[in-house]
Amino acid sequence: MAGALQDWKSQKKPFAAIASLPVFWLALFFVAPMAIVWLYSFGQNAGPADIEISGTLENYKRATEWLYLSIFLKSLAVAALTTLICLIVGFPVAMAITFAAPKWRPWLLLGIMLPFWTNLLIRTYALMALMGTNGYMNKGLGGLWEGASWLRTLVGMQPLEAWTPVQLLYNNFAVVLGLVYVHLPFMVLPLYSALDRLDKSLIEASLDLGAGHFKTFMQIVVPLAAPGIVAGVMITLIPALGAYLTPDLMGGTDSQMIANVIERQFKRANDWPFGAALSFLLIYAMFILIALQSMKANKTKEVR
Amino acid sequence: MTETKQPIIQIRNVSKRFGKVTAVDNISLDILAGEFFVLLGPSGCGKTTLLRMIAGFEMPTEGQIIIDGQDMSLVPPNKRPVNMVFQSYAVFPHMNVMDNVGYGLRIAGVAKGEIRDRVTEALELVKLGGFEDRMPDQMSGGQRQRVALARSLVMRPKVLLLDEPLSALDAKLRAQMQFELSDLQDKVGITFVTVTHDQDEALSMASRVAVINKGEVAQLAAPSDLYEYPANRFVADFVGSVNIFEGKLTLDEPDKAAVDCPGLGKVYLNHGVTGPHGADVWVALRPEKIYLHVPGEGKAIRAAAQDAPDGHNLARGTIKGMSYLGDITLYEIQLEGGQMIRVSRPNLSRHDQEDFTWDDKVSMHWRADSPVVLLS
What we know:
The structure holds two protein chains of two kinds.
Chain A: H1 2-10, H2 12-40, E1 44-45, E2 51-52, H3 58-63, H4 66-99, H5 105-113, H6 120-131, H7 136-154, H8 172-197, H9 200-208, H10 213-224, H11 226-241, H12 245-250, H13 258-266, H14 272-303
Antiparallel strand pairs in A: 1-2
Chain B: E1 7-18, E2 21-32, E3 36-40, H1 47-55, E4 62-67, E5 70-71, E6 82-85, H2 97-107, H3 112-125, H4 141-153, E7 159-163, H5 171-188, E8 191-196, H6 199-205, E9 208-213, E10 216-221, H7 223-228, H8 233-238, E11 243-253, E12 256-261, E13 265-269, E14 280-285, E15 291-293, H9 297-305, E16 314-324, E17 328-335, E18 340-346, E19 361-365, E20 372-374
Parallel strand pairs in B: 3-8, 3-9, 6-7, 7-8
Antiparallel strand pairs in B: 1-2, 1-4, 4-5, 9-10, 11-12, 11-14, 12-13, 14-20, 15-19, 16-17, 16-19, 17-18
InterPro entries (chain B): AAA+_ATPase, ABC_SmlMolc_Importer, ABC_transporter-like_ATP-bd, ABC_transporter-like_CS, Mo/tungstate-bd_C_term_dom, P-loop_NTPase, PotA-like, Transp-assoc_OB_typ2
GO cellular component, one term (chain B): ATP-binding cassette (ABC) transporter complex
GO molecular function, one term (chain B): ATP hydrolysis activity
């Protein structure tokens, strides 16, 4: 690494030549549009398609009203819950892959990454097909219900009432489940890479010194996997916070998240300045999260 | 050394198979309380598997391990009265030395004050006093190993298991640690069981050594017996350097024996070997037990010693290779029959290595108590 860094310092011209194109690309297609949207957030509508950038803070004032702030906080809560569930579900999965026989590991990892091969929209519709009132989940539950009913008649009891399908979709439950489904690989992969680096003899040493499996997990595995946990949390929380498609398709009227509100401003409400202000509030929130994480990372580095 | 002769570990007909591979094949042995026991063998011989079965990280496929009179078959590692020092040391990287060494005591719920006292005591024992607040990444490999040692010793185990404890250290430090480990074992009186592939390590530290080959015990003996009275060709060859010649047993009486080796000549021993007459046997002769002379001289010295009949324990050859190692010089000599023999010669004066050189014709002799006859 040090050698590569030195080369970069002594060979500035070729480096600049190679770097200029991607830098130009980013500037043109990422920084410039973002800057424009940022400017919009200080503007107001001056006609159906005209935006006057007047430097007003009115949009931000409106964005921090309780109506929008509550949706924002709710999005944060949903994203946090999603992240927590992903962590709880993902940790055993990552550990199982780490401790699996080496010949199985690539296949298990492939299994984790396989969903990425399909478009998110299609995956979401597939999940909806499973969870709908006529979906397989309900059919399965219905089958169990009827089985139970039949068993009751066998022992001479009254049969149960007819099965009424459970409403699994179009509520907050569906949104969290959908988000967990989408984001689980993002949690598992960094956890796996952290656990894979963990020297297995540390676990054996802990057992050898009298600790049980739970204590070993809490005292040795979790602290040493901390970088992976932090990475997994960030990489899950941030996209979940800005999730749009899942709440849009799987949520009900009360389960919209901040991204859905932003979308409405840009499309139906045609209020780009206000949408821009909301967007940037979301971006600022993410910046704060990332800043907190890197501050913490720096701190632990200093302690070392 | 404590002279208790009670077995602390009894290994009874233990086998371990991984799929089709047999790592440990029906081993039975007793390890006595207070001894420094070494499992010696080439890599892949099953010695580490045996150690891990004692620690509880592997379960025997067959057989039984009894520690301090208690059958360990259903006892998990965290409930066994043994502690292990890992080859990689396995010092917890996120804890300082104090917390590392105190880990087991903390888990056991020992009072804070007592933990501090015992950790300090253990650190003094391994000469790491004052290192309490260091993090493992601020320490050298040797120091980390001492932390691992202290972390195990502080638990006051009945048996301390050490997996290749010196393999990661440089040569100087290794020699020093060999002495320190023996010393430490003397001081604490705990039974040490060490795994190593390094015969020097085994010979210098052990009270007894079990040489393991292909999952079986090839020989179990004190270090000097292992070297001077190897039981078979594997042990003779693995422990130290040796010349081995095939031959036929021509004489075998209680106080003398003779073997006719086509490659070497007639070998005479001043003790019996109790092998079947005319059987195929092997003669093992250590390089340092062979004397080197200018031609003819050997025969005269041999005759003057009168510990073997004429024409026995003599050989002639030509020096084909030579390596000067400082304290000794090692010669590769081609015998008249064509086979090679290794002879080492101490450099007793500064010019001894100049006595012989490449292509010199030399004669050799050895004493009647030097060769070992091996039946397998």
